[in-house]
Amino acid sequence: MEKACSSEPLPLKLMHATVVVLCRNNPIELEETLNSLKGATDGLGPHHQLELLVIDGSNGNACRKVYHSIVLFNWNCRFIYRSPNGTYDAMNAALGEVKGRWIAFMNSGDIYLRGGFASLLLHAESQSVKRSFNHLGAVFGQAWIEPPGLPLHWLTPNPSLDKIDAWLRHMVPCHQSMLFQTTFAKLNPYHLRAGSKADRAVIRAALASPAEISYLSKPVCVYRLNGQSSRLFDLNSITSPGLAYYERMVGILKIIISPFGAVYPFVMWMRSIWFGWIC
Q1: 155 vs 276: CA distance, rounded Å
Q2: What CATH code is carried by the domain that includes residue 198?
Q3: Pairing of the two strands 111-112 and 215-223
Q4: What values do phi and psi take at 77, rounded to 5?
Q5: Residue 271, pLDDT score
């Protein structure tokens, strides 16, 4: 465990929020994600003190070298190596390390828009002041979905929808577009036996009705569907010894259909349009 890339060590008791970035053998994508943090906080005041945790499961030192090459002022930064056991195992490990009152998770390759993280944090803080956030575990904004190599680009949730509560009965936000209360997150870790669906139960629990309180109708990040951070299948997760039998079979099925993976983003695009229309 190391601390780096902060201009000055910041007092941990004053941390407002933590961003956790997950990486594994993808230094180019990690560099993109970390560089996006430089503009993501535009709009925050000097009193906001932030923490960055990079959780790395790589076989070599390429991601560590990228981490040390990025300079992020006014962030308290740490790099943690963890033996790879899937995305959600790494996210659970981060929950034991975070010092911020709020926590966000980003996969390497996904990026914040300029001012995106600031918008989420300010929205969360404003809802807390109103005391309307006591029963909710998170806030979320819109995410641009960009499948690498394909001419697709869409927002989720769809901006045309009328009722976010109705949309949430069918869909869940990208976790990259979310900011969780750390207390809630630590009480609701990701169940590894749930496989690729582990985040859905946590997200649904965090966004109790009425979800209008938590929704920020503004794009905050870019999520690269089926890219390095979100492939159709994760071989390491499939081979995890704790994975439930059903989820292992689903993972194997995804491997079988992976040659047709180029169709998957188009299906998700049409699904987003459909639920934006009916909600």
Answers
A1: 10
A2: 3.90.550.10
A3: antiparallel
A4: -115, 140
A5: 72
Reading the block at residue 202, the tokens are 């946590």
Q: Domain total for the chain?
A: 1
Q: Are 26 and 101 in contact (CB under 8 A)?
A: no
Helix (H, G, I), strand (E, B) or coil at 23: strand
Residue 210: the pLDDT is 66
Bridge partners for 108 per DSSP: 110
Residues 181, 101 contacting (CB under 8 angstroms): yes
Q: Hey, which residues does 140 pair with through a beta bridge?
A: 178, 215
Q: Could you tell me the two tokens for 278?
A: 């009916």
At what angle are helices 27-40 and 62-69 packed, to 10 degrees?
20
Phi, psi values for residue 256, rounded to 5°: -65, -40
Residues of the chain whose pLDDT is less than 70?
A: 1-14, 130-135, 195, 209-211, 226-266, 269, 274-279
The residues that bridge with 19 in the sheet, in sequence order, are 52, 104
**Rounded to two decimals, what is the model's pTM?**
0.82
- What's the one-letter identity of residue 253? L
Q: Phi/psi at 127 (nearest 5 deg)?
A: -70, -35
66 DSSP assignment:
H
* Structural domain containing residue 81: 2-278
Share of the chain above pLDDT 90, in %: 46
Q: Are 5 and 77 in contact (CB under 8 A)?
A: yes
Query: How many other β-carbons are positioned within 10 Å of the β-carbon of residue 189?
Result: 16
